[in-house]
Amino acid sequence: MDLLVVGGGGREHAIIKKLKENPVVETIYALPGNGGIAADAVCVPQISATDIGAIVDFAVSHAVGFAVVAPDDPLALGCVDALHAAGIPCFGPDARAARIESSKVFAKDLMKKYHIPTARYEVFDTSAAALAYLKTASFPIVIKADGLALGKGVLISRSYEEAEDAVRTMMEDRAFGDSGSRVVIEEFLTGPEVSVLAFTDGTAIAPMVSSMDHKRAGDGDTGPNTGGMGTVAPNPCYTEDIARVCMDTIFLPTLAAMRAESCPFKGCLYFGLMLTPDGPKVIEYNCRFGDPETQVVLP
Ligand code: AMP
Ligand code: GLY
Q1: Which of 39, 181, 191, 234 has its CA 20 to 30 A from that of 57?
Q2: Which CATH number does the domain housing residue 56 bear?
Q3: Does 143 share its domain with 200?
């Protein structure tokens, strides 16, 4: 069987190396792929990961037997929906389920409605309302762009001045484009962070080994958040007892919540957790394999 993998980073290379272990797999096409991936797959650099029409045409014309959509953008744009509509079996959530990552407001409202532990928050769609709220807030505080922002849309502000700057950058200067047209302002939590990637069909769940992501740009965990500076697995803070608590209070309730909202999640669901003094809480969901976590988790 020939496969297609959408994406072109280290994460996609790790996925392709794993897929190649299956003896039924013949050719793997990577759209667009990269120089490293070229050692393990046939790269198609002229098709970008967000060109959904071209991806579907390629899958159909090459009689691909199975597709894996790895990055957040094509998932949010409905790449899985389009491949399924063209009759191509596919790994990944549809666009409605991908909202668990592509809209922080959707994710936070889901957690509130279904009592899944997370930081307290408020949502704002004008900078004036956000700034008025910040006048009464205590610091540090966390400001998040609603939409996708390459992992950079979260700013932690230690004072009103920093928070004002963050709100103006997102909502007025549109540093993250339309992703900043709404913001979530949330309580600052403390504790070690854990990433758990899990396979799910919407009901059953199989978590992979835990990992720890390092997001800050500077040495000593300082500076702005990035898409990821490095990662280790397993995460030394994630004990079996904590894993059980997460399964009961976070993982299974999240799948049930998505089913109850008529958008069951199928694919790899990423739980970004913080082990706070009040127990594990969700910092973020991703609708896909973590980047760079996948590079240490899959091997
Ligand atoms: P996110 O993209 O939502 O995972 O946020 C990026 C990073 O910002 C996280 O990995 C945390 O280190 C930090 N962060 C996000 N939300 C909070 C919070 N409520 N309290 C403390 N740190 C946070
Ligand atoms: N490592 C964080 C992410 O995949 O978004």
Answers
A1: 39
A2: 3.40.50.20
A3: no
| Position in ligand 2 atom list of the atom nearest CA 286 | 5
Quote the pLDDT of residue 260: 98
Residue whose CA lies nearest to ligand 2 atom number 4: 290
Domain that holds residue 70: 3-92
Q: What is the pLDDT of residues 114-155, one digit of tens each?
A: 999 999 999 999 999 999 999 999 999 999 999 998 888 999
Strands of the chain (E only): list them. Answer: 3-7, 28-32, 42-43, 66-69, 90-91, 121-124, 141-145, 154-157, 183-187, 193-200, 205-207, 212-218, 222-232, 267-276, 279-286
What's the structural domain count of the chain? Answer: 3
**Tokens 């999640």 label which residue?**
265
Going from the Cα of 166 to the center of ligand 1, the distance in angstroms, rounded, reads: 15
Model confidence pLDDT, tens digit, residues 240-287: 999 999 999 999 999 999 999 999 999 999 999 999 999 999 999 999
Nearest CA to ligand 1 atom 6: 154
Q: Does the CB atom of residue 101 touch ligand 2 within 6 A?
A: no
